[in-house]
Structures are given as structure tokens and as C-alpha cells.
Amino acid sequence: MFLLPCSALALLLLTCLALEPPPRCPSPSNPAFRRFQREFLLGYLPALAADWLQGPLLFQLLQSRGFLRSQIAALYSCGFASNVAFGLVSSIFVDRLGRKKSCVLSSGLCSVSCLLQLSWDFLALATGRVLAALGTSLLFSAFESWYIHEHLEHHDFPGEWIPDTFSRVALWNSGLAVAAGLVAELVAEGLALGPVAPFLVAVPFLALSGIFSGKNWDENYGKSRPCSKACGEGLRVLLSDPRALLLGLVQALVESILLIFAFLWTPVLEPHGIPLGIAFSGFTAASAAGSALFRRGTTGRLRLQPLRLLFASILLLVLALLALALPLYPPGDFLAVLVLQLSCGMYFPAMAFLRRRLERGGDAAGGARWLRLPLGLALSLALPALPGDPAGTRGVFGAAALAALVALGAAGGVLGTSRGDEGLRVGDEELLEGDTVE
Question: Does the model's pTM come out above 0.85?
């Protein structure tokens, strides 16, 4: 089972190269902008590399500590619950504390979390999961907010140059994700340092990010808004437009399913002898191929509507979950997981684009977080009770497929009520590179 993930990884990387559309405009040559862009990347990319390094072998690490599957699920639940709960106020917290301070805090929290993985104590590891969730929430809100404010307000660079930076981030992030799986496999298995090694390798990257951003970046702040007002505004946006409400339901369901997958992918593939680090690199390459497919489909001659690609991505998700619910041969499980990751690569930029277009001056993301909160917390409570036998795991994927079908119906509802809406199509000026969903 070593040849299969390696072959899939090579094929997916070639697919990414073939699908990636050419840049739509030349890169700005302004020296001051290039210097500013380089300073941002030197602070942001190490933090992204460290985040990817923590993904491949977490389940295996907790297994090596002798914990039962239900205890491992409880540790995952600590992280999931913290992520969805803090997600409600993360943007408000970042705006009030300061975006540079939040970037440094993100690096500090994730560093402590990585070091706590050395412990064999359950409470210490649970604390590490909570800190990792908080640090990751800040990672995906503070850094980009800091950059956009500095780009527009401090340096007064044209807004049309922002896509150049985030296209570079997207390219580097994909490469770092693939490399992280290979590095994790090398240090854990090749050098026989064990599954804790990738977490220790991540610490210097986090220190580099925190020190560089703290020393070289200026501080900036966002609007000071009461939490109740910000969340209420998000709910108002959702309720004022049925399409935004349906889209929020899609986001809540799909991302809850992905939380289940984040817990189950290791116990599904590990018994087949598939190297987890190489498999992880294959997943991220499949996701990158999906993102490239989205960009190719929405630009150039095709000009496909992002809403149609969102529908297609959820349909692929349904098919992948149904395949995982069936007792397939080991290659079938691995290929189904690759299809699932391909669908994620299409889903995230499509959802980010549509959510931004449907905000209409409000904060639809705040409302979507309210929809995600009860599902995420319910999932966190239910995760330790999920069956641990292979048949039970297949049943969980079957239930997830039913939830994905509901999300598919909601996406179809948005599609049916948006025919002819030019506002949901991609314009030449649109930023598609590096779109993420909070």
C-alpha cells in the first residue's frame, strides 16, 4: 500500500500544474510593494507550515499514548468545541486586541499546544487541543486582516494588487501542505522519532512567525463593535435573504461533516498499512487540484457560475461519503478520500465567493457561525460515543452522506432562486486565489 499513495500524489501534483490557469494580469513591480509583500509572507508562511505539520499524525500520536478511541474522540471534541465557540467572537477579539498582537498570540498558543503533545496526561493534552483551536482561529482571521488593512490604509497601495499577494499565499500554502505530510512521514517513520516529532518540528516555525511579525510589523485595529451587535447583524443578514440562510445551512452541514472526517480518516486508512504522512500529502494535493479546477472553471472561456461549482462539489462529497459507507477494498477507501478532498478544494473558494457576494454590506459570516455553533457543539458531544468498530464507522459515514444530501438540497434551493443573477458570477477583478471560509 506504499505505491498507491505515492502514485496518487504524483498524479495529483501533475493535475494541479495542468489545471492552474495562467495569471490574469502581470505582477506589480513596485519595489515598496514587493518589500511589504515579502515581509508579510515571511511572517505568515511559517505559521501555515506549522499548522499543516500538526495534521497528519495527531490520531496516531494519541494512540501511542495508550488512550482508548473514546478518549481520543473526547480530545478531538475539545478542539472542535473550542473552534466553533471561539469562531463567534474571533474577528471581534482580533479587532479589539490588535491584529499584530493576535498574530503573535496565535503563534504562542500553537507553540504551547505543540509542546503539550509531549505529555502523557489527558488534561494536559486536552488543554493542548483547546489552545490549538484558539490559535488556529486566530491564524485564519488575524493575518489576512492585518495585511489588508496595512495594504490599503497604511501603504495606500491599489486594491487591485491584493490578489497578487493572496495568489502567492495560495500557491505556497498548497506546496507547504504537501511538504508537511512528507516531512511528518520522514521524521516520524524514516528517522524513527515517533508521531510527536512533527509537532516539535512545528515549534521553530511558529517561533519564527511570532518573532518576525512582532518585530517587523506595525499594529493596526479594526472597528470596535459590541459582540451582540456584530452577531445580531449576521443574523439579520441571514434572515433578510433566504439564499443567505440556505447558504449558511450548507456551510454548517458541510463543515460539520468535515469535522467528522478529520477524526475518522486515520482509523479508516491506518489498518490498511497506508503511510499516513504520504496519504496526508495526497489529500492536500487533491484539495489543491480542486481549487485549481474551481479557478479554471470560473475564468477563461468557461465562466462557470460559482454556485454551480458549489453544487458539484457537494455532489462529489455525497458520492465520496457513500463510497466510504460501503465495505470497499483498501484502494477504494483511499480513492474515496481523495474524491472527498477534491470536493473540499472546490467547495471552500466557491463558498467564500458566494458568502461575500450575499453579505450585501453586512456580516453573513457571523450568522453562519450561529448556524454552525449548535451542530458543532452537538457533534463534539456525540463524537466520543461514535462506534469504534469498522461496521459502525461505515454507518457514521452513511449518516454523514444523508447530511450531505440535505446540504445538496439547500444548495439546489440557492441555485434555483439565483438563475440569471449576474451578481453571483465572477468578474475580472474578483479575488479567487486563497479564498477561505471561517
Answer: yes
